[in-house]
Amino acid sequence: MNPIFADLPTTVFEVMSRLARETGAINLGQGFPDSPGPEDVRRAAADAVMTGWNQYPPMMGLPELRQAVASHYAHHQGVELDPEREVMVTSGATEALAGALMALIEPGDEVVLFQPLYDAYLPLVLRAGGVPRFVRLQPPHWRFTQEMLEEAFSPRTRVVLFNNPLNPAGVVYGREDMELLARFCIRSGAVAVCDEVWEHVVFDGLRHLSMLSIPGMRDRTVKIGSAGKIFSLTGWKVGFVCAAPEILRVLAKAHQFLTFTTPPNLQAAVAYGLGKDDAYFEGMRRDLQRSRDRFADGLKERGLAVLPSAGTYFLNLDIGPLGETDDVAFCERLVRQHGVAAIPVSAFYAQDPIRSVVRFCFAKGDEVLDGALARLGSVARQAA
């Protein structure tokens, strides 16, 4: 067996979800909303199954979806794309990431990764033959500096894998951060593979800034989006890849031998959804921000230290003030003794992990969040 995968442990997400099922705990660990998603988009998918094409769609994606992606990003992010030469549809963002890394990395190439990181990144980089170089981010602000990038980049850097907004930290990087990272990419000749799946899930009046729009990065950026995150339909697995033609041409070769194509009814529904008016996207952000604030305020009222969250479905708790130094042990006690499942953020580090932060998903109904808060009321009291 290939040791990269054979030696991987069971993910902490599965461990905590299993414990939640076994104990009847409220599961705020795994990151999915408990709403069914927008009805009109779901109906569009159902209609497409009954009346549309159900055989192989084009390998690059339905033309109407590729056009919808280009129009959507032009409207919402000011990024102009040629739908025929610069947009591809994949079976989810993880497939897009795998294909991009396999297409761009040769054995021995160095890849800059920012910790905390989505747990699929490192195995995919290693399987492609890449050599990881880590930038270790820390709470509460999770910012990187020029000195940190100087240490991570080298003449062998070929790819930078950058998640913005950043899961699990909930930070949204702005122009100053992006331009700093862009300078290092340009200097080293690296391609930035940008996981931008949370691009619409940003709060407090912020707007997502794509690396494609940063000067000097238009021809060295791979932008990856996710319909699952945009429409809160995480099981649909419809991803978008946007890149300059000379990059996308090679990424398409990897894609055709991974999944080749994506269910055409879902593609048709996503094409419809991307054309929804601004009110839908504003309302989605407003509703999630309200849930974030409800949960954050409840945690603070119970004497718990909440870290800022400007985007994603996630809110982090600093357990250091509780005298805790092991986030894994804390999460196990939390699910067994208090009936709430969370995720230890150390699981998102490959080396030298932060062990004082745990992550909750707040993309839930009020009754679920309030139920979790009721169970968490004794956590701070027990620590005192």
TrEMBL record:
Domain called Aminotransferase class I/classII large: residue spans: 25-369
Gene3D superfamilies assigned: Aspartate Aminotransferase, domain 1, Type I PLP-dependent aspartate aminotransferase-like (Major domain)
Keywords, in A-Z order: Aminotransferase, Pyridoxal phosphate, Transferase
Matches recorded under SUPFAM superfamilies: PLP-dependent transferases
Cofactor: pyridoxal 5'-phosphate
Presence of the UniProt keyword Ligase in the record: no
GO molecular function: kynurenine-oxoglutarate transaminase activity; L-aspartate:2-oxoglutarate aminotransferase activity; pyridoxal phosphate binding
Chemical reaction(s) catalysed: L-aspartate + 2-oxoglutarate = oxaloacetate + L-glutamate
One of the Pfam families matching this protein, by short name: Aminotran_1_2
Family: Belongs to the class-I pyridoxal-phosphate-dependent aminotransferase family.
Protein known as: aspartate transaminase
